[in-house]
Model the fold of this input.
Amino acid sequence: MVKMEKQNIYKAENIKNKVIFPGNRNGLPDAFFKVAVFIDNAYLLRLKNYFFKRKFKYSLNDFILEIAKANNLFVEKIFIYDAPPFQGEIPTEWERKKREDYDKFAASFKEQGIILREGRTQRLKIGGEFVYRQKGVDMLIGIDAVSVKNDFPNIQGVVLLTGDSDFVPLVDKLKKLNISVFLWTYFERTRGSPFSRSNFLIKSASKYFKLTPDCFERVEKKDVKNEKK
Done:
């Protein structure tokens, strides 16, 4: 496994203990804070594909553990949330292929000790075209997050890997339950960016960490065959 250099972080003076930025070590969270990580997989896939315009494979488990270690967090549990692809009563070849690919990813999560929680995929016909939407995924994240202390008493905080401002009420609820919330996200200040900054979400979290392509590249799975050529 590629060793990740520890990322130093600091709090800007004009930010009242809300966010973290690259810099010196002042303002680190408590050493090795025990956390559960909740991953919005639709968001993570969209971000990975935005960063890399090529076939890119990486270890999700190592990705999470390396970022956590760099931020003095100890990961107790990792949860990932997704929805199986839509399947018609008689699945098309395309639908079967999508399901096969999904099942491979689901199996890899299990091998890494990652807990997969699934909603469902709804198919709607809008303007003569089919549109696919995940249902129930956000609700599962909310249910699991607010009950995390009951299920895992050693947990001191949660990591939310998402960019969806709809989770702000969840963050507020967790903080009322004395559960620290660490947001791992990505944003750009460019007008029209698909990852625009959500100040509402960022300000609601106890701390945040901005994801970068380097976070993925450090745990990339190299093609051994190509390396030997």
About this structure: The chain has one domain: 20-228. The longest strand covers residues 73-82. DSSP finds nine helices and ten strands in the chain. The domain at 20-228 is CATH 3.40.50.1010 (Rossmann fold).
